[in-house]
Amino acid sequence: MPALYAMRARRYMHDFGLTKEQLANVVVKSRRHAALNPDAQLRKETTIGEVLESRMIADPFTLFQCCPTGGGAAAIILCVSDLARKYSDRPVNVAASHVVSGVFKGGFRDMASPEIIVRCAKDTYEEAGIGPEDIDVAEVHDAFTSAELMYYEAFGFCGRGEAAQLLDSGATSLGGRIPVNPSGGLLSKGHPVAATGAAQVVEVVRQLQGRCGGRQVENAKVGLTHATGGGISGFDHGVCAVHIFTV
Fold first, then answer.
1. Ramachandran region of residue 174, left (φ > 0), alpha (ψ -120 to 50) or beta?
2. Please, where are the H alpha helices in 73-184?
3. Per the omega criterion (within 30 degrees of 0), is the bond before 179 cis?
4. Are strands 137-139 and 222-229 parallel, antiparallel or unpaired?
């Protein structure tokens, strides 16, 4: 997976002029958020220089730009709205839940744009009756630094080739227009694989209920989670799941 994502990152760098320093800045934001999350695996803040100086894994990715392995667990309770209101004064609603499979394509593929996520995002927005401008907080599948940047574009948070500028502007940081991965994401919270999707839901539910302390997104009312899996030849991914939650 590091090699596959590295090839995608190289293509994006070629097409849009993304620099290694901008890639490393994804980790800086991730660690800054994770420092405020007691459940995160990597909570020490870092600098662009430290990220670039960490051990090379698959060019352009250094060690800090790859999600760590680790264990973890998360639990979600689903019930009808009337019952939920008996147990919570701020129940969270599932506005949309969408899963799509990958589409096989031989030959050339645009490696700088994840087709499966663009398609799943569009379907989920339509199901919920909202657009990207309505999302207050998002937890996305940032297994590697370039992935988070490409997902900004796939979800419509910015235009093609504008992800690094969105990151540099502070829009995706806590206090910004659309905070992404306030938990620290996979890069810093960790990626316990089977628990990751549920853990993203836990984070967004806590955000919408105002239970996140120092990493709380102000006035968060609409949250999004996104996970992918199944690296298969000829596919972007085997499957993509996107959920939208509201209060």
1. beta
2. 81-87, 115-128, 145-154, 163-168
3. no
4. parallel
**Cα distances (angstroms) measured from residue 152 to each of 78, 83, 158:** 28, 35, 6
Q: What is the pTM of this model?
A: 0.93
CA distances to 25, 116, 164, 241 from 121, in Å: 25, 9, 20, 9
**Tokens 């401008």 sit on residue:** 133
Across the range 29-48, mean pLDDT stands at 97
Is-contact 192 232, C-beta < 8 A?
no
Q: Domains of the chain by range and CATH? A: 2-246 (3.40.47.10)
pLDDT tens, position by position, 92-140: 999 999 999 988 777 777 889 999 999 999 999 999 999 999 999 999 9
CB–CB of 229/110 below 8 Å? no
Percent of the chain with pLDDT over 70: 98
